[in-house]
Amino acid sequence: MAMPNPLDPTDPTHPPGRAAPRPPADPRAASARAAPDTLVIDLDGTAGSVHGARREAQRFLADTTRGHPVGAGPARDVLLVVGELVANACRHAPGPCRLSIAVGTDAVDVAVRDTGADVPPNVLRHPAGGGYGLLVVARLTRGLRVSPVHGGKVVRAAVPLPASE
Questions:
Q1: Sign (positive or negative) of CA dihedral 33, 35, 36, 37
Q2: Domains and CATH numbers, the chain
Q3: Rounded to 5 degrees, what angle do the CA atoms 10, 107, 38 make?
Q4: Which of 7, 129, 141, 157 has the fewest CB atoms found within 10 Å of its own CB?
């Protein structure tokens, strides 16, 4: 397994914030550094981050110049997963977060890196007072993976793509 590069802003394990190189003002410019089938956006962690993340994800998924097309059904699922994971990062972790979306041949990987150290509760048991967002994400994806990283965590989920005909 390759070691994460602490200077690579496209690496979802790279800490957001001051340690990262200054992100460009336009989120699409940040994704230009990533692979053609990868979108990376640095978000400020405010409530407006959710709308911005969904908007940029929708543009990215609709881009027909990428190598792997994403159909309408899986794209809707990806947008829901993006909204839920970014909303959780904004609500439960202080500061900025980073969204990464990578389109593969059989799945779309969605990862959100935030500054929170808390691991989400077991999503199969609905916690009292909590929402249903992570439970919905777990049902739409191949499950949630949470990886602690220096200065926070990465929450990742893979939305399956239908087999090519």
A1: negative
A2: 27-160 (3.30.565.10)
A3: 25
A4: 129
What is the C-alpha radius of gyration for the chain, rounded to an integer number of angstroms?
15
pLDDT in tens, the chain (165 residues): 444 444 344 455 544 443 333 344 444 444 444 566 899 999 999 979 999 999 999 999 998 677 778 999 999 999 999 999 999 999 989 889 999 999 998 999 999 999 998 876 665 555 556 678 888 899 999 989 999 999 999 999 999 999 864
What's the pTM value of the predicted model, to 2 decimals? 0.76
Q: Are strands 97-103 and 38-43 parallel, antiparallel or unpaired?
A: antiparallel
The closest of 64, 61, 84, 82 to 72, measured between CA atoms, is 61
Q: Residue 161 is encoded by which pair of tokens?
A: 């793509």
